[in-house]
Amino acid sequence: MELDHPVALVIGAILHDRREAAHVTAEEAARRLRIPSDQLHQIEAGQRHISSTDVQRLCGMYGACAEATALTSMGRVAWYPSMRRPQPGDDPFAAPRYDRATGSTERLSTVMRRSERVRWLAPSDIPPPLRTPDLAAAAALPGFTPVAFPAPRPQDVFILDEQTLKGTGRGKAMTGQIRHLLDLRRGGAQIHLLPLPPHIGQVIELTLPAGSVVARHHFHPDYQATDTLAADIDKALAGTVSGPDPLEQALAQHTAGERTAR
User: Fold this and answer.
1) DSSP-assigned letters across all residues of 121-188
2) Going by DSSP bridges, is the β-strand pair 157-161/117-121 parallel, antiparallel, or unpaired?
3) pLDDT tens string 164-223
């Protein structure tokens, strides 16, 4: 499995998490894989190549056999009918790596838990880590079990847009959501708002101990190098709203609308 790509950080973080969940020490896993324990730590940090066979052996060791196919698929350059077909001269480092297998959102949540910092640009949406249970239920896809995302930390950054908060389609659920965002921000969460949604879609930058990787979208994400996409997050931060608090304004708009509707 070719892993000269930032997705190695993702695969390593998931293997690390599954090992700890199975209560297997690094020394025991390395012994059974017949490698030095420092090599296993390098694999888990995304700093060392690992074969598809060894991914399967580790997943089996951790009781996570279903993960093996997903992780090995993420380690290969993939092509789907809606995409430009890879060409011989393409840079494999720059090509996105896709997680289309069942459990992709939960794997992203796992990598977030192991990240030192998350920066999430979420135009036209409220990111799952910020959602109230009511909004999460309203946004849930039929047949999919909701995934528990880690709560935002003071070092994490979330960038939303005002138009999403001003939408009236979710009624009281959105009013409660705005109050929740205000409470999170008072607790130290970094929540910024753009006046209009940018046209680049959802971008999630994950900073892990050994490097950074960007995920596009939280459902069936694709993983890419950070250069251009991290610059898009920087640009969005520079354009966030200043002046009167847009969260307070959105809350006032929704509560006024609810009073009028009574």
Assistant:
1) E-TTS--GGG--HHHHHHHPPTT-PPPPPPPP-TT-EEEEEHHHHH--TTHHHHHHHHHHHHHHHHTT
2) parallel
3) 887 655 667 888 999 999 999 999 999 999 887 777 889 999 999 999 999 998 989 999
Q: Which residues contact 147 (CB under 8 A, 6 or more apart)?
A: 105, 106, 109, 128
Tokens, residue 39: 């090599």
**Residues 6+ positions from 53 with CB-CB distance below 8 Å:** none
- Ordered strands of the 203-208 beta sheet: 97-98, 222-224, 211-216, 203-208, 117-121, 157-161, 190-194
Q: How many residues does the chain have?
A: 262
Which residues, given as ranges, of the chain have pLDDT below 70?
A: 1-3, 77-94, 167-171, 257-262
- C-beta separation of 153 from 230 below 8 A: no
pLDDT at 255: 78
Q: How far apart are CA 192 and CA 173, in angstroms?
A: 20
Q: What DSSP string runs through 78-121?
A: ---TTSPPP-TTS-TTTS-EE--STTHHHHHHHHHHH-SEEEEE
